[in-house]
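Researcher: Next entry in the queue.
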Amino acid sequence: MMPQPSDASNPASAALAACVLGVVLSPFAYIAIGALGGFGPALALVSLPPLLAAAGFLLYRFLSKPIVNSAPSGLLMAAEVVSWILIAGFLVVISNFTLQTKFERIGLSCTLFLVTTVISLPVVLMRRTALQARLRRLPNGVAWVLAVAVLAIAVAIVFVYLRRDPQFV
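Model: Structure for this entry, 169 residues:
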């Protein structure tokens, strides 16, 4: 049996995996900073159960141990797509919790994304995950370009966001 490369030997897939996990965890960063308080309790009652189910499903799929030579079923892929739609929808709604301009909404989203990505990085470095196994299928050069592009754009937006004076809508 051929030895598998260690996670440390493929930092591009680890960086991309941390970015994906950062997006999945971003709604919880909004909840942690009190964004739900800007809405009525009905939003929390309606949106939190689907969000928890979607994020839980994606985290289970992504953080489980990689399964060799298994093709995902159509039902699992459909559940992933629905989970991503629920998370994206929650992020769009929750990012509008204060009177911010569109750039400030994007800046705060990028800030929280970077925070959750940094928090996710040790997890993907310490443990082989199914998400990393999926991302290792990408050519190494493509993985590097994607990781650097996503992180560089997010860092640039956060830098501008933190340096600008607050605007009012």
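Model: Residues 102-126 form the longest helix (25 residues).
Researcher: Noted, moving on.
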